[in-house]
Amino acid sequence: MIDRFYADYAWEQTAALLAIDSPSGFTKNASAWVKDAFARLGFSASITTKGGVLIDLGGQDTDNGLLLEAHTDTLGAMVAEIKGSGRLRVTPLGGMRAENGEAENVRVYTRDGKIIEGTLQLCNASVHVNGEYGNTKRGFDTTEVVLDEDVTSAEAVRALGIEVGDIVCFDPRTRRTASGYLKSRFLDDKLSVGILLGFAKYLADHKTVPARRVYVHVTVYEEVGHGGAASVPAGVTEAIAVDMGCVGEGLSCTERQVSICAKDSGGPYSYEVVGKLIDAAKKTGAGYAVDVYPHYGSDVEATLRAGFDLRHGLIGAGVYASHGYERSHMDGIFNTLKVLCGYLEV
Fold first, then answer.
1. Active site residue 149
2. How many CB atoms sit inside 10 A of residue 86's CB?
3. In this structure, are residues 53 and 38 in contact, taking their beta carbons and an 8 Å threshold?
4. Active-site residue, from 144, 222, 301, 326
5. Are 35 and 206 in contact (CB under 8 A)?
6. Using one digit for the tens of pLDDT, what is the confidence trace for 243-292?
7. pTM of structure
């Protein structure tokens, strides 16, 4: 039976990956890190043409393969306009919300390799000046990036090397509390990448070869809808997205559990796969919940829409405040690892 050492390892890898900025379309450094992390454990890993990472965890039955999908791309923004004031109007990458990102520190990456710091602020952000501060609807037209540079014109901003199309990354603010809670932006879905690294280390340390072939695809365009639409190895009959489990009103999952999704906005998941995931949770004593997610889509649904003939499922450690300043727990990691081990009987 897998022990908590691998949950701790999974979090250490997650924290390291969270420190690498990687919004959708700007994932090269994160993918290189993921490839090297799996390779250090002894597994074959390669960068796909699209920029994701495909890993072979081994296994005997190549005609009944399992593909585990997680993603390392996150929310972020892109420079849409350099204002005459020297401020930046940005456009979101993925489901980034202006009202959530307001007052967050950001990094602007220029094409020539510079990193310029700033903050996303409400336009006219001083409460002592702006009498409509509390009444202003937050959006990317009413917020702006204030650069931490002495710039008051578009020309001065361009002199720094900043242009339209440059990537804007939000500070993740990663923390692990003494009580085991994990707080950070972008636990969706770097936490799951860390979990899969923990699972891979478990296989490597115990020299375990699964009965069926197991692959991992760490995708890089999930947040914009097409991450899992390619790179499915021959012989794969099932694909399971390992992504965040939803926590919120109307759902039963907590941050300390693994969530098994029965249905989301894309429709029901494979009844057979969901049943086997429940059985795996029961067999391993994992704390779990089965939920229906009202506003959610996953990599594995992109795989199905691309035309691949396979059964699909979705699990993940419970995450609260999704697409915001997210929170999970070490128990959620451990319970997800248990289900993976139980599903593959390793």
1. no
2. 19
3. yes
4. 222
5. no
6. 999 999 999 999 999 999 999 999 999 999 999 999 999 999 999 999 99
7. 0.98
